[in-house]
Amino acid sequence: MLTTDICVIGAGAGGLSVAAGAAQMGARVVLVEGGEMGGDCLNAGCVPSKALIAAARAAEAQRRGFPGIAPQDPRIDFAAVRDHVAAVIAGIAPMDSQARFEGLGCTVIRAMARFTSPREVAAGGYRIRARRFVLATGSRPVVPEIAGIEATPYLTNETIFALRDRPRHLVILGGGPVGIELAQAHRRLGSEVTVIEAATALGREDPEAAALVLDQLRAEGVRLIEGQAVVRLAGGAEGIEATLADGTGVGGSHLLLATGRRAALEGLGLTEAGIAHTAQGVTVTPGLRTTNRRVYAVGDVTGGPQFTHLAGWQAGIVIRRIVLGLPSRAGPRAIPRVTYTAPELAQVGLTEAEARAVHGERLTVTRAGLAHNDRARTEGLGTGFAKVMVVRGRPVGATIVGPQAGELISLWSLAIAARLKLSAVASTVLPYPTLGEVSKRAAGAYFSPRLFGNPLLRRIVRLIQDRVP
């Protein structure tokens, strides 16, 4: 029997943040993890995918060349690219390791956890009784119900980064951010790629911004099939065949499932613990407490948006509540998201369509294009724009598509979270020349009609000028 203050179940982004914060503040912490330390983000998600994307970007830079620099076909060693991915994971892993967390004072148990009662968990031969529990078990890839899938070899984000041989033709089911990112990366690394999306690729995003991304993928040779569901799968070691709803077939050497993720709830004993849940995730209050008052939940397991940065933010809320005893709630917050393609697509707050539905005629949409950004022009990267949704002088959403959009969206995340007026962005002094100026130009565009197209203001200015000696 182990008795502790806090038992954290899951050593992904959210769980590690809770464990590290609580232990360093003096709480006794037991951390239980049945898989790899660092969870999905480190081992099969954010980190390996961005490492692969970086290698693909380097290959594409050679292929494109630059004015005065001749393009050339890159010589790609796919196994070495895979070694780069593994090296990046290995370089980050010590920060998430069992040794580090034991050094912080946590008791780490490497086993699957299961509630045996509302206040006890069994794991690795231990019974753990805690004053508070935190569920942070993350999510798992969804395997869709398609005829023949049981007999068809497939990859998910949890297995594709183990490939050492380049897929000859990668067929991807799912046109969301994960599918689209990996489609472009593998195409740039020399694979043929086909993406099949039953609805609309990047359908959650602003259509105008998504179109720039999808047009770029098509230009690079990615085949996109939209509005077609896969009704049957077949294949083996020699290749796979996907049959579409219209009867046509799509063949390839490898199949990647990128059809979404589902909260990892299996085997947790939630019923024994008195924790209400649905297929989407654990039911939580705004304070992230479950129906068992001793148990909190953070991250993907809550059934909300599946972002590492959201799990980290939620971890801070739980720490304030259960370690410091302070009131804290996960109220409405603008959570940014990024699709790491080229061009990148970043969003925070409401899209234009969402803002029009909520705010109607009170909405003003202001924008600026990268074609007029001097830094973008110097680098030959003038495609893209920043679009800001404004209500009563304050931003309620921002969309950026273009180079480094994921970096540029941070300013709008702050502006929306802090309820800053657009004038605060417009009056900020930014270094020149930088891509960040596109945000200031978009903010300034909101005021331009009020300053330069105002007849009354022109008369006032004329009156002032006529009176100046």
From TrEMBL:
<dbReference type="InterPro" id="IPR023753">
    <property type="entry name" value="FAD/NAD-binding_dom"/>
</dbReference>
<keyword id="KW-0274">FAD</keyword>
<keyword id="KW-0560">Oxidoreductase</keyword>
<keyword id="KW-1015">Disulfide bond</keyword>
<keyword id="KW-0285">Flavoprotein</keyword>
<feature type="domain" description="FAD/NAD(P)-binding">
    <location>
        <begin position="5"/>
        <end position="315"/>
    </location>
</feature>
<keyword id="KW-0521">NADP</keyword>
<dbReference type="InterPro" id="IPR001100">
    <property type="entry name" value="Pyr_nuc-diS_OxRdtase"/>
</dbReference>
<dbReference type="InterPro" id="IPR004099">
    <property type="entry name" value="Pyr_nucl-diS_OxRdtase_dimer"/>
</dbReference>
<dbReference type="Pfam" id="PF07992">
    <property type="entry name" value="Pyr_redox_2"/>
</dbReference>
<dbReference type="InterPro" id="IPR016156">
    <property type="entry name" value="FAD/NAD-linked_Rdtase_dimer_sf"/>
</dbReference>
<protein>
    <submittedName>
        <fullName>Dihydrolipoyl dehydrogenase family protein</fullName>
        <ecNumber>1.-.-.-</ecNumber>
    </submittedName>
</protein>
<keyword id="KW-0676">Redox-active center</keyword>
<dbReference type="InterPro" id="IPR012999">
    <property type="entry name" value="Pyr_OxRdtase_I_AS"/>
</dbReference>
<dbReference type="Pfam" id="PF02852">
    <property type="entry name" value="Pyr_redox_dim"/>
</dbReference>
<dbReference type="InterPro" id="IPR036188">
    <property type="entry name" value="FAD/NAD-bd_sf"/>
</dbReference>
<dbReference type="GO" id="GO:0016491">
    <property type="term" value="F:oxidoreductase activity"/>
</dbReference>
<feature type="domain" description="Pyridine nucleotide-disulphide oxidoreductase dimerisation">
    <location>
        <begin position="335"/>
        <end position="442"/>
    </location>
</feature>
<comment type="similarity">
    <text>Belongs to the class-I pyridine nucleotide-disulfide oxidoreductase family.</text>
</comment>
